Amino acid sequence: MMSSMPPRLTAATGMDALTHAIEGYITKGACPMTDMMHLEAIRLISANLRDAVKNKPSGRAGMALGQYIAGMGFSNVGLGVDHSMAHGLSALYNTPHGVACAILLPTAMKFNASKTGKRYIEIAKAMGVKGVEKMDLATARKAAIAAVEKLSKDVGIPANLKGILKKEDVPFLAKSAYADACRPGNPRDCTVKEIEKLYLSLI
Ligand SMILES: [Zn+2]
Q: Which of 4, 20, 127, 151 is deepest in the core (most CB within 10 A)?
């Protein structure tokens, strides 16, 4: 069923699934049952998305399982500010949901890092980063974010919102993101002004 999906659609929906897994793993409501699902989803998606984009059957199978497990996790505990901010971009500019989520993910991860304890260590390990055991927390956090950036780049997702986001829309978008149902679950509480800054950092 998925073998006819074009590469760009595969990349966008796959990065959306990764965002579900990462936001679900660090959200305020995260619990041991969903942690188990989200970490396995991060592992499966990181290992298979590149091959799925190349339409390799093993990559497609791994992504089918990975996105499903991520869905089982986050539908129990919710997401965070990445999804809150992505929803407005899709509504205003028709940006594909997964592309919006993926572009925002490293920025949202950096913003949230201080409220995630040792969770980015587990994310880095699940993404296959080598030598995480020997890293201090700050280095492991950077490594987890770098692994997300690399995967995004490898599957052709733009690195920022240049050419998409218009500066004059930022106040409206930030207010909308603040009112979004996903925002209260974000591990770090944020104000409308802080969300504005996150948007502006990407143009
Ligand atoms: Zn999503």
A: 20
> In this predicted model, what pLDDT tens digit does every residue of 135-158 receive, in sequence order?
999 999 999 999 999 999 999 999
What are the chain's domains? 7-197 (1.20.1090.10)
* Ligand 1: centre distance to CA 19 (Å): 7
Round the CA-based radius of gyration of the chain to a whole number and report it: 16
User: Six-digit token pair at 2?
Assistant: 């998925």
* CA–CA gap between residue 17 and residue 40 (Å, rounded): 12
pTM of the model: 0.98
Ligand 1 centroid to residue 16 C-alpha, Å: 5
Distance 56 CA to ligand 1 centre (A): 24
Q: CA end-to-end span of the chain, whole Å?
A: 37
**Distance of CA 99 from the midpoint of ligand 1 (Å):** 10
